[in-house]
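Pilot study result, target chain (178 residues):
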Amino acid sequence: MPAFKSANAYYRFARKVKTASRYTRDHEDLDFLTTLLAQAETDRKVTLNKGRILWRAQLGFNWEPYWDGEKYNSDVMIEGPFPGERMKPLRDQAREGRANPQGLPCLYLSNRKETALTEVRPWLHSLISIAQFRTTRELVVVDMSSDDRPQRSRDFSIPPEERDKAVWYSVDQAFRKP
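Predicted structure:
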């Protein structure tokens, strides 16, 4: 299996994509992406079973008629969650995110409700809509998380045997940033 040439491989790639050339790749970029894909294929695949619960939260709410136990009263509107369709990414309003450029919607889901709530960074007393999604089939995904902080030598360099761990840790940290 290919190994990353540097512990800083992700940072170099990310810097070039953000500041220099988003749509063209040089030899170094292609090596990085090839290694990332090869390691993802062999070491990072995870299967989510059919029926798995995932969560999405959004700041905001929807006004809905008050239900008095027998009928709806449209003269009295109360706060309620966004409807199901609104909890999906809006094609015409997709803002830039961690995994998508502006205009290209991306569905962010969490395996924990608390994480989904935290991700929206609510203010105190914010009203938040939260949706529960259930997978309709088995899904194979790439787990990019890594809690393994790479070991450093006494001179603060990362030994060659720790390079791959360092790169995956960097990818994980990038996904954790708002």
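One observation from the pilot: The longest strand covers residues 72-80. A full batch analysis is planned for the follow-on phase.
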